[in-house]
Every structure is written in structure tokens, then in C-alpha cells.
Amino acid sequence: MIGVWNKLNKSTRTNFITIGVIILIYVLCQVMVAAGLMTFLMKGLLIQFCYYAILAVSLNLTVGILGELSLGHAGFMCVGAFASAFFSKSMIDVIENNFIRFSLAIIIGALSAAVFGVIIGVVVLRVRGDYLAIVTLAFGEIIKNVINVMHIGLDSRGFHFSMEVGKLELLEDGEMIIDGAQGIIGTPRDSNFTIGVIFLIITYLIVTNLVNSRSGRAIMAIRDNRIAAESVGIDITKYKILAFTISATLAGVAGVIYSHNITTLEAGRFGYNMSIMILVFVVLGGMGNIRGSMIAAVILTLLPEYLRFLKNYRMLIYAIVLIVMMIFNWSPACINWRKRHSLKDFMNQLMKRFIKSKKEA
Fold first, then answer.
1. Is 254 within a domain?
2. Where would a tag sit more exposed on the chain, N or C end, judged by fewer CB atoms within 10 A?
3. Coil, helix or strand for 345?
4. Region 222-246: what's the mean pLDDT?
């Protein structure tokens, strides 16, 4: 077994270790829930860990791997959330099978976000740096504000649309699907922690395999030196659109998981603050560090909730923790320490000891 493990390349071993840790944490959480050892607050945070980690990993593809600063990731999440929630609520009486309906909702949410990812990818071909940040920020705000003024209802005559409050005239059997700033109320709660973990693993595999592929190396070459990459024949247009599209698609999937876990979906939740929070996950986890993004997402989601008892001092402590994590991630001394005590080395040592004990037995 040790021979098979050693024959695997470095990236494959890293993927096995990361996925194994995710599955182990999932099993421990399920055991704690079954044994009644987990608080109600923590149960509610489990699925949040998943969709925030998916958002962090997907944004890292754009910011860390491609090297483009995007502040519109919440906009892609918003598109996926509303497109899927609109479909699920409209089809709740037509498609009674929850699995089929939710599967179709995921496809619709992902494809809707992917379309906008292509559009933004085409736009960003001509802008970089701060200008790109402004464009993507504007995209997120436009999406949020457009949905805030949309009123869509459904009755026996079909769908009805209006941009003004109180202008929809529905029959008695009619129902509002999207009601302006109130959003969508009553989306079926089809997502759960298990689904979140499954899609987190899928997201991790998609991004890591892309990074380690020929396309990933081309994307990183564009990040390191755009002119040099273009001079050796790398298609800048193709790979930029590819990165933005995949990143947007995964954000849309996170939006689907989010929208199908709450009772009221409001566009106001997908504003500037949400995009900045996701960017903080990426920066603190390490630019281009996929596993670091997931860890940062979990820690920074958990921390504010457990500091609520401190009231006025909660955000101060949160800021201090952010600074400490920044130093831990970027200080040369801390980087060297992490290299000497990496999880990979620990798992390799554990695997060797396990195989040695089997042989001796």
C-alpha cells in the first residue's frame, strides 16, 4: 500500500488527504448531531460553512489563480440563488419529486450564473486592476437592484411581470413568486449539510484539477506575465473567459444551496458587503491556496457567531483575529513554520506508521 501511495503524484496525494479530512469532519459532525452533542447554533452553521467555502474556492480561481480582482462574486451567487429559487417555487406543484426538482434547480442556477460569467469575462478582456474591480462591483449592484424592483406572479393565465409595486393583478388562484424587495418567500428547503459537503468536494476537485492541468498552467502564466504568455501563443481571451465562467458557475451552485436552505430569499443580502467578505476569505486563506480558502471561510464564519456575547467588543476582536491570521498567512517566519509542520507531512507519517504496524502484526 505504501508503494501505491508513493507512486501517486504530489497533487493526487494532496487531493486524497484534503478530501479525506473533509469526509472525516463531516462524519464527526453527523455523529455529534446524532448524539445530541451539537448546539442548535452550530447545526445552523454547518451548511453555511459549505456554501461559503464553495464561494471562497471559486473566487480564488479568479483572484488567486487568474490574478484578477473581482468584487462581483455575490452577484453571481445572487443570479444562481434567484434563478433556482424561482424555478423551484414555480414547479413545486408540478414536480413533486424533491430530488429531481432540486437537481434541475442546481443545473438552472449554475447555467444562469455561467451566462453572466461569460458576459463579465468578455468585458474584463479590456480592463484590469482597479477598473476591473469597479466593473464587477457595478455588476453585483445592478443585479441586486434590478431584482429588488421585479414583481413576478403566477396564476392560471401564466406568469405576470411588473417593475412597479401593486401593479400585478392576479386571479384568486395566483401567487407572487418574486415580490420586489421582499424577494422569494417559501422556497422548498431541499438542501442540507450532506449536499453542501458533496458540492464542496466537487468544487475542490474541479478547481484543483483545473489548476494542475494545461489550462490551469496557462491561466497562471497569464497572471504572472500577460505579455510573455501571449508571446508564446497562449490565448488570453479563451482562458480568461474560462476562468470567469467556471468561477461564476460554482458561485451559482453556492447560491442554489443557500436559497434552498432559507425560507425568505432577499436580494439585499447579496450586496457589496457579501462580496468583500468572500474576498476576505480568499486573502486570509492565501491567494491561490485552495485549502486555505476553505479553512478561512469556516473560521471567519464561525468566529462572529461565537463572539456575539461580547456585544460592542465583538467586531474589535474579529478585526484582531483577521490581523493575526494575515500575519500567520503572509509572514515569512510563519510560512517556514507551516512548511515544517504541514498537514501533508503529518498524514504521510501517519500512513507510514499504519502500514508498519500492519506488517508487524
1. yes
2. C
3. helix
4. 87
Q: Is residue 356 part of a domain?
A: no
Q: Cell 452577484 appears where? A: 75
- Phi and psi (nearest 5°) for 63? -85, -50
C-alpha cell at 350: 501517519
Based on its alpha-carbon atoms, the radius of gyration of the chain, rounded to whole angstroms, reads 22
What count of other Cβ atoms lies within 10 Å of the Cβ of residue 171? 11
Domain count, the chain: 1
C-alpha 198/C-alpha 50 separation (Å) is 9
Cα–Cα distance, 333 to 48 (Å, whole number): 32
Q: Tell me phi and psi for residue 286, to 5 degrees.
A: 110, 125
Q: What percent of the chain has pLDDT over 90?
A: 27
Over residues 158-194, the pLDDT tens digits come to: 787 877 766 777 777 778 888 888 888 888 888 999 9
3-state SS class at 159: strand
Contact criterion met (CB below 8 Å) for 50 and 260: no
- Residues present in the chain in total: 361
Residues facing residue 161 across a β-bridge: 152
Confidence of residue 350 (pLDDT cuts 50, 70, 90): low
Structural domain harbouring 225: 51-270
Q: Cβ atoms within 10 A of the Cβ of 233, count?
A: 7
Owner of C-alpha cell 468536494: 201
What is the value of pTM for the model shown?
0.86
How many whole angstroms separate alpha carbon 353 and alpha carbon 186? 52
All 3 cell numbers of residue 21? Answer: 479530512
Task: Check residue 246 and give its pLDDT.
Answer: 93
First CA to last CA distance, the chain: 15
pLDDT at res. 29: 93
Residue at 83 is within a domain? yes
Contact 181, 191 (CB under 8 A): no
In terms of Cβ atoms closer than 10 Å to its own Cβ (0-12, 13-18, 19+), residue 74 is buried
Residue with the three cell numbers 497562471? 220
pLDDT value at residue 330: 65
Reported as a pLDDT band with limits 50, 70 and 90, residue 122 is: confident
According to DSSP, the β-strands at 175-179 and 184-185 are unpaired
Residue 249 lies in a domain: yes
**What mean pLDDT do residues 126-139 have?**
80
Look at residues 235, 297, 311, 261 and name the one whose alpha carbon lies nearest to residue 73: 297
